[in-house]
Amino acid sequence: MSTKSKSQTKSAKVITLLSRKKGTTLAEICKTTNWKQHSVRAFLTGLRKKGYVLAREQRGDDGTAYRITQNPSDQDAKGSV
Hints:
Blueprint: H1 10-19, E1 24-25, H2 26-33, H3 37-49, E2 53-58, E3 64-70, H4 72-79
Antiparallel strand pairs: 1-3, 2-3
């Protein structure tokens, strides 16, 4: 049998999408995770509580895009200076 690496968690996939330069939309996250929009919004709120800074930007006809602008580890590094 071949050993496959463990698939990426949904949380990790969403963080990867949010880390892209152009960010991601709620629809893209829903499609990737099979979550409903209210679940995606709750997840984004949880990220904010963990210290992530999220930007919300208009993306023309695509609607609203969300993007991580600062990770919790970035804030820790700044605080210890």
